[in-house]
Structures are given as C-alpha cells and as structure tokens.
Amino acid sequence: MSFISVIVTAHNRREFLLDAINSALNQTLPKDEYEIIVVKNFSDYDDILKNLGLKIVFSNEENQGADIVNTLPYTKGDIICFLDDDDVWVPWKLERVKEAFKEEELGYYHHAHLVFRHGEDINDLIEKLKANDNEFIRNRFVDLSAVNSSSTYIKKDMLMNCISQLKKVRYFIDIFYYYFALLKNCKIKFDPVILTLYRWHHNNSTALKEESFQKWLEKKISFYANRYELILELISTCKSEEVKSDVIKILLLQALDDKITVSRLAVDVDKKYKASFGDYLKYVSLNYKNIKGILLASLIFMPKPVRLYVARKWYEKEQKTY
Asked: Which among 17, 67, 188, 260 could disulfide-bond with 85, CB atoms 3.0 to 4.6 Å apart, if both were Cys?
C-alpha cells in the first residue's frame, strides 16, 4: 500500500506556516497513511511542531531544489507531496491523491488551485468548495498549470533519479517536477478538481519584489539563466530512445524562451546566453501561435534603451502591491 510523505517548505517566511501545517494535519486520510516533514531555515515553532509529532529538517540552501534533496532521506513514502508555507489544502485532498495513485503507472499528479487574497476566511472558502458552489468557483481565479508545488505529487523514485539536477534548481522548482516526469515517460495526470488554496499576499515568491530596478534585473537574469542551463542539462541526459520527440520539443522551447529572456534583459550578455537570429527563428517555429511571446522575443534585436524600457515596465508591474 502506498504511503505519502508531505514536505512542507518554508524559507524565511514564518507568518503563514502554521495555517499550512494545520491544513496538512486536518486531512480525512487516516494519519497512519501519511507523514509530515517540515523543512525550514529558522527555529521558530520547533516546540509546537515536535509536540505535534512532525519531523523537522533544518536547511538553509540558496537553491530550492537543494532543500528538497536534504529532506528526501527523511521521507518514508513512495509518493512525495509538497506544500508551500503560505498555501492551504482542503481536508479531503490526500484522500483524492491516494485514490489517484492506485493507478500503478501514474508517476506525476497535479490538480487545480484556487487563488485567494490574504485576509479572506479560509474556512468559508473550503465550505464553498465542499458544497461545489459553481457560481462561487466561476468568479474566482483557478489555475491548472504546473506552476504550483502545493498541487504537485510525484513518485519518490523519480526524484531520486534526478538528484543531481534537482539540487541545482534555484527557482521555478514546481515546473521541474513536471519536466522530471516528462523525461521518465511515466503516466501524467492533470486533474481539474480544486484541492489547494493559493494565498496571494505582499510577499509572494511569484513576483520578485525589489526596491532597486538594477537588483531586480540581476535576479531576473539569474533566475532564467539558471533554468536555461538546467534544461540544457536535462536535454543532454535524454539518452534513452524512448524519450518522445514531443518531450524534447517542450524542453527546447522552454530553454530558448529562457535564453531569449536573458538576452533581452541583460545589458552585457554573457556569450553563452546571447540569443542568435537562429535561436529566434527556432523559437518562432516552435511557438508560432504565441504572438505575444514572439513580439517579446523580437526585443533581442532592439536597441538597449528599448529593451530597458520594456524591462522597467515589467519591474513596475511586479512592484505593485497585491
């Protein structure tokens, strides 16, 4: 019988952690069918967590993936679930996950999440979801894309096979879980059911808050350069002939997108990140339906003042309060 290990991650941010942990504790799935491990870089709440019988892992790595790598040796489950410190699960979530993984071929499971603003009544939101209030759901932002760790579940052996790449993941860790699954040719399931509440607040990691435009620019470049290099590494490891060409195309498109993003943001582009006209043509051929993406990619041919103007507009948008 499958056993679930829940990894709750917290880096510096403390204020929402207990909400996340309580939502993982208050599951309808029997307590002997899952465990909770909290990985964080601070000592706050240690006594509370120990009294609750939870495992605590201290990890203060720069890379998000390295925190997960440091935690995996403490997990007993064959299914790994992730919960960010500022998100909340509905009580029936793990039961749904356990049911999904009865399908032996399933290696990656992802479901929808509903966005809520900090200050909203979480219990009220959960009750409306439990009642399947369609009018309520229609008026909310619901997302099924693979960009929320708190809605992602993956077989542990798949992560263990990608340890060398996982520990290098600095940002965007949620999308890498999906990439790992793609490369393993396992069965992947996207479920439209809403089982996670994604909290939107002033300190979300989704938007990069920086007082200085220059510092924001440097961090953005670092984000995309890191992902670009890791995706190239993943592509280079695709030695198995069983890896589908469509999977390679997905990874290649993301790598090109990241390389082009670095090129249009950077004033002085490192040669290995400098997108060429050939890169642009290949990007267009793979992404021809994305007009906005193609227009943004064409910025690599624009003068520096134009590129910086567009970058500053992006910066200003991210600095706005939630």
From this structure: 17
CA distance linking residue 138 with residue 166, whole number of Å = 36
Tally of helices (H runs) and strands (E runs) in the chain: 14, 9
Distance CA 28, CA 20 (A): 15
Residue carrying structure tokens 């002033």 = 202
DSSP 8-state class, residue 265: H
Cβ neighbours of residue 320 closer than 8 Å, sequence gap 6 or more: none
3-class DSSP state of 218:
helix
CA 243 to chain centre: 23
Report the pLDDT value the prediction gives residue 205, as an integer from 0 to 100.
64
Per CATH, the number for 4-200 is 3.90.550.10
- Rounded distance between C-alpha atoms, residue 133 and residue 35, angstroms: 31
The pLDDT tens digits of the residues spanning 252-307 come to 999 999 999 999 998 787 889 999 999 999 999 999 999 999 999 999 999 999 99
Q: Which of 319, 322, 307 is nearest to 221 (CA)?
A: 307
How far apart (Å, rounded) are the C-alpha atoms in residues 63 and 69? Answer: 10
Range list for CATH 3.90.550.10 in the chain: 4-200
List the structure tokens of 247: 């999977």
Helix (H, G, I), strand (E, B) or coil at 227: helix
Tens of pLDDT, residues 125-175: 999 999 999 999 999 999 999 889 999 999 999 999 899 999 999 888 999
Q: Which two tokens stand for residue 213?
A: 């435009």
Listed residue (179, 228, 188) closest to 108, CA to CA = 188
- Residue 318, C-beta contacts closer than 8 angstroms, at least 6 positions apart: 207, 208, 209, 216
Report how far residue 292's alpha carbon sits from residue 241's, in angstroms, rounded to the nearest whole number: 34
Q: Which residues are CB-contacts of 301 (< 8 A; sequence separation ≥ 6)? A: 280
